[in-house]
Specification:
alpha+beta, globular, 4 helices, Aminopeptidase, 7 strands
Length: about 140
């Protein structure tokens, strides 16, 4: 598996991965409101890393470099649990300066455990009743 910067030609597949992953795992959200175009809006001005194997994109991370912030980390559902997220997370950490931060929706227990297992700690919980999230830090 190789991690590289995203290319413009990757965008259609990245849109699909983002949509499918959220629809499958975001049980707290209204999946009918999710669209392919959400990817474009949710990654504006971000650096995007992709995990590729045999010319297939397995997942991506979008980083807002000025704030050392991981905005998105998504793995195609077919490749979940195969180390793709770990490789993307490691590459993201290497690309930025510590401390790094991210936000993880409080309801996303699987993601929360993933980050904690990789050395991230919960800093504070924020948000409203509809969607609380944890600000997490990696130092």
């Amino acid at each position: 598996m190789k991690i590289r910067e995203a290319h413009e030609a990757d965008v259609p597949e990245l849109r699909r991965i983002y949509l499918e992953s959220r629809r499958k795992s975001f049980h707290w959200a209204d999946v009918e409101k999710m669209t392919l175009e959400d990817f474009d809006q949710h990654t504006l001005e971000e650096s995007i890393l992709v995990a590729v194997e045999d010319h297939n994109i397995l997942g991506f991370a979008s980083l807002y470099l000025p704030d050392n912030f991981i905005h998105n980390l998504f793995v195609h559902p077919d490749f979940s649990g195969e180390g793709v997220g770990t490789k993307l997370l490691q590459s993201s950490i290497e690309k930025m300066t510590k401390p790094l931060r991210l936000k993880c929706v409080s309801e996303n227990h699987r993601a929360m455990k993933f980050y904690e297992d990789h050395g991230w700690r919960r800093e504070r919980e924020e948000g409203d009743l509809e969607e609380k999230y944890w600000v997490m830090v990696y130092e």
